[in-house]
Every structure is written in structure tokens, then in C-alpha cells.
Design goal:
Layout: H1 2-5, H2 11-23, H3 25-40, H4 45-55, H5 57-64
Helix pairs in contact: 3-4
Length: 66
């Protein structure tokens, strides 16, 4: 399912993201929960996702660079 949403992303980047998710499932579940909470507050998915990702930007950088 996730791969279908990333069809416009190069294969190497898709693999990097999928590996990061597999290695850090709790972190990404927390992000998903935060995005859902923002959407319940009335934000659209893109705005909610951007806000949560910016909040966790430093940790995301560390995860994606490993």
C-alpha cells in the first residue's frame, strides 16, 4: 500500500524510506497518530503531515541518514 503512494519517488528513495520505517516502527506509528490527531482538529492531511514532520525534523534526519 505504501509503495503505491510513492510511485513518483525514485526506487532508491522508496527503499530508503521503507527501510527506515521497518527499523523504527514505533517512531513512525507515533507520527501517524499525531497526523491523525491534527486531522481530527480540522486540518487537511497535507497540512497535518507537514506540521508533524517539521516537529520531528531532527529525529527524521537522523533516521534517514543511517
Amino acid at each position: 500500500m505504501l509503495k503505491s503512494k510513492m510511485k513518483d519517488i525514485p526506487e532508491a528513495e522508496q527503499e530508503k524510506m521503507l527501510n527506515a520505517i521497518e527499523k523504527n516502527p514505533d517512531f513512525f506509528q507515533n507520527i501517524a497518530a499525531e497526523v491523525q490527531a491534527k486531522m481530527k482538529e480540522g486540518k487537511d492531511q497535507m497540512a497535518a503531515t507537514m506540521e508533524v514532520m517539521q516537529k520531528h525534523q531532527e529525529e527524521l534526519k537522523k533516521i534517514m541518514n543511517n
